[in-house]
Amino acid sequence: MAGDEPPLAKFKKRHIISMRDFTKEEIDFILEVAERLEPYARGERRSNALAGKLLANLFFEPSTRTRMSFETAMKRLGGDVLNMSGVEASSIAKGESLADTVRVISKYCDVIVLRHPKEGASRLAAEFSEVPVINAGDGAGQHPTQTLLDLYTMKKELGRLEGLKVALVGDLKYGRTVHSLAYALSLYGAEIYLVSPELLKMPPEIKEDLRGAKIHETSDVKEVISDVDVLYVTRIQRERFPDPTEYLKVAGSYRITPDMLEENERLIVMHPLPRVDEVDPEIDRTKYAKYFEQAFYGVPVRMALLVTLLEAEV
Ligand code: NCD
């Protein structure tokens, strides 16, 4: 019976485009596999489970962590990676369409990881790909693998996911990490505090989709600090502003400093990184800071996703 299928079977050759593609059970399954793979992610145990498998990184926007943690995940499990050598050096510069690029690259590899400035690019790519496409960020749209590692971090650091109180702080308009994360948190009955300058509020169509969550909205982070378990801070997405003067109106409008955190002992501070000036580096040395550990968790979580999609046994 289809309903009795293990979550693994349901993942067969599936594209990972949006958090809306996941059920809560599927998320829990990936996080459990990730936990088991942590020693491999740390290099303490070795495996060749992905030997002979090739991942193609197609990044049309800058990336450090996402691209390199996919590469680490593949290589630590014996797989290999093709990297497109930048938009300027590839046939994209000659005017090749995304559809044609994906049609061809999908014949070279077993899975494609795509980051693109246009919302919906991964969904389009999936239509032309012979192998699973993983969305590594599509404009201001979604960033599902970041959300999986964000949830993994919360589970590891706080011991649970159910009913957390999470403040999403910063650029809630253009930030794809918070668009994906808010939806996932709503599946776990979270209380979500949307904290942003007026110009960067969470778009209404995303808020409408958060039915399982209790939502509060404010522009003052100080109001929420004593209430929440997680302060999830984000960078203002400067590159997405159609008008640079709009960016200047909000640049530097919020900054988390250590003194602000003193009233809440149990709080953790997360950030998808890169940070600019929104989290004071003085916080790095405090018990609140979890963002560097969070970046590491991208490796076991992406390993879990890859072994599941590629049907490998570790
Ligand atoms: C984020 C992104 O690309 O959306 N980075 C990441 O993947 N960790 C966040 C950002 O760029 O601000």
Helix-strand layout with pairing:
Blueprint: H1 7-10, H2 24-41, E1 54-59, H3 65-76, E2 80-83, H4 98-105, E3 111-116, H5 121-128, E4 133-138, H6 144-158, E5 165-169, H7 176-187, E6 191-195, H8 204-207, E7 214-218, E8 230-233, H9 244-250, H10 258-261, E9 268-270, H11 291-309
Parallel strand pairs: 1-2, 1-3, 3-4, 5-6, 5-8, 6-7, 8-9
The site of N-carbamoyl-L-aspartate (NCD) has 10 residues, from helix 3 and helix 7.
Mind explaining what this structure looks like?
The protein has 314 residues and is of the alpha/beta class. It has helices at residues 7-10, 24-41, 65-76, 98-105, 121-128, 144-158, 176-187, 204-207, 244-250, 258-261, 291-309, and strands at residues 54-59, 80-83, 111-116, 133-138, 165-169, 191-195, 214-218, 230-233, 268-270. The protein folds into two domains: 2-142 and 298-309, Aspartate/ornithine carbamoyltransferase (Rossmann fold, 3-Layer(aba) Sandwich); 144-295, Aspartate/ornithine carbamoyltransferase (Rossmann fold), CATH 3.40.50. The protein is built from eleven helices and nine strands. The strands form two sheets. Strands 7-6-5-8-9 form a five-stranded parallel sheet, with helices on one face. The radius of gyration is 19 Å and the shape is globular. The relative contact order is 0.16. Bound molecules: N-carbamoyl-L-aspartate. N-carbamoyl-L-aspartate (NCD) binds at residues 65-66, 137, 143, 146, 176-177, 235, 272-273.
Question: What can be said about this structure in brief?
Answer:
With 314 residues, the chain is of the alpha/beta class.
